[in-house]
Amino acid sequence: MLGSRIISLAASAAVAFAQTYSGGFDGDWDAAYSQAESDVSRLSLSDKIGIVTGVGWSQGPCVGNTHAANSIGFPSLCLQDGPLGVRYATGITAFPAGVQAASTWDKKLIYDRGHAIGEEAKALGIHVMLGPVAGGIGKFAAGGRNWEGFSPDPYLTGIAMIESIAGMQDAGVQATGKHYIGNEQENRRDTISSNIDDKTMHELYLWPFADSVWANVAAMMCSYNKLDDTWTCEDEHAMDELLKEELGFKGYIMTDWNAQHSTVESANAGLDMTMPGTDFNGDSIYWGNQLQSAVQQGQVSEDRVDDMVTRIIASWYLTGQDQSYPPVAFDSWNGNGGPDVSGNHDEVALAVARDGIVLLKNEDNILPLSNPGSIAIIGSDAIANPQGINSCADMGCNQGTLTMGWGSGTVNMQYLIAPNDAITERAQQSGGSATTSGNDDANQGRSAAQGADLAIVFINADSGEGYIEVEGNFGDRNDLYAWHNGDDLVRAVAEANDNTIVVIHSTGAILMEDWIDMAGVKAVVWAGLPGQESGNSLVEVLWGDVAPSGKMPYTLAKTAEDYGTSIVTAGPDNFEEGVFIDYRHFDESNIEPRFEFGFGLSYTTFNYSEISVEGAPSAGPATGPTVPGGAADLYETVSTVSLTVTNSGDVAGAEVPQLYVGYPSSASGQPPRQLRGFDKVMIEPGESADVTFEIRRKDLSYWDTDAKQWVVPEGTFTLDVGSSSRDLRSSGEITV
Ligand code: NOJ
What we know:
alpha/beta; hydrolase; Immunoglobulin-like; 18 helices; TIM Barrel; secreted
């Protein structure tokens, strides 16, 4: 599918840079299966068991390693974290986090980021990368690991999964869709039961995993939590029925690390690989010899084991790893970080960091800066961690500028361009000067801001994985406020300086009601989680080398209660909010957000033409044969929506037109608006770009819980195209 992608790019280049991506990875499962099946027929039972069982925690160079089957030349597979780059290696790129990739809304950049991660992984001999992340999708604003994934919108996350998987697997590494499924919080993550009704499961949580299967993802990771009181990694409904039967998933399901609780039940429910093979103490071995005995005693059929192994070997063929794949060139545990494999990936890292920056407020056009004079840079989030940029294991601290959250989804940085350094250098180049107050004390911030022509104050909020506690936060955040009394710092600075710019690095939404309307707060820049190129990306936007073009991939609320969900601290999570998370909830309940989903300012302005709509699906269920992703016709284009976007301002800029669909009333229980298309177009001043959204049958279907099918309802769909979920510019209809 790479071919069609290139052709459509070339065809659209005449107008402006319009993207037609999202083709997925072009893999031939049939060919891969026939090669794998012939291999499996030559394997002993113990070789088969070795392929499905990890060698044990820290017993091989990677965070997960399988046993080699030398009789057929099948290697020990190396499985490594994680979703923003290669964990425990030294010569790698620290890419922006998934959520930052999502805030670019740029399919090509998301693909490029995935491809670059895949290239680095392959060069280090990693067969399987443990990412990208589609769950937790982010139903809780305070969810500790939301930043590893993309967005609480399933469509945006689905497209980001497709692009990331295609990029990674085109580079030769197997991608892993994780964490499947219902792992929305860190609090009690390995005991909580996520009780998700069928509609919510399909329309929200399963949706991006279905797109991942459609993109031919090689692997999936079942999650720590339970589903309706059954461990996800032994849940037949989740693994066998949903993933393998309904979605036609042909790859393999591995456990999250130590998420297995049984030998027989897990095998018979559809689990294909146990990782890391033991618990973190080398105990709790459920497969290996135990599985061998279960087969010998007839509790697990050898056919089931053959199926596990076939899926694993087929995925290896699917991604071409039988063709002289490089050997593992690093070790996670002994300080051997491997060779430098980063190439020119700093360019992709910079582009994603920069184009994911969201400009939230810009009074009096204070940005972009031209001759800023004297700048006061304020806050510990402006400077590199004085203890060293990698001084905290798995980034398990919040000192200095925040580039990523904490936990297994982090990497060590080769270098970090801190905001302070980049701004100071740029200020001097543009004839000004900068001073830095690199702490969070409000009084010191006030003094630093007084008398400066401009103050740039940095605040942040951090979160991560529950095995590390940071400043009293056990993974999930305790609240949605900026850390280190950031609100006090901003208020003090903005009282002292009328030209205050607030820069925020955060793993998720923060509340900004304490200062957002202050007259001194002229600009607010959401810089997200930028990775190693933090300072460079920020400076390019602040000084207007490029106009900001990121859009919020989630809602910024006025109060924590407005989200309608909060971390469940006791008992099961019954998912009572159903599909109404993030903007779906704000729209349904008529709650005014501070900044809505899809919002982001530019240094230029855009006009939207009327839209034209072509084609309509037939009413009724999807009936096609099952392909990877589900019924084949779900993925066919049934309608196209086109419009022209014109840059009506003075500088070049990229815009993200967004298509929102409202369902006819015959489909009850649907949110008022749902994202069902987006594109990103770079447009010169005075020029226009043609934008076309291809709407799949899936995008106009709802899950019929009685018929257990995707159904296109009869009636009239409303279409709204706009610059955010609440700045809707042109509308139309599709009548079915
Ligand atoms: C547990 C995490 O949930 C998962 O994302 C990660 O891949 C494994 N640990 C391995 O580090």
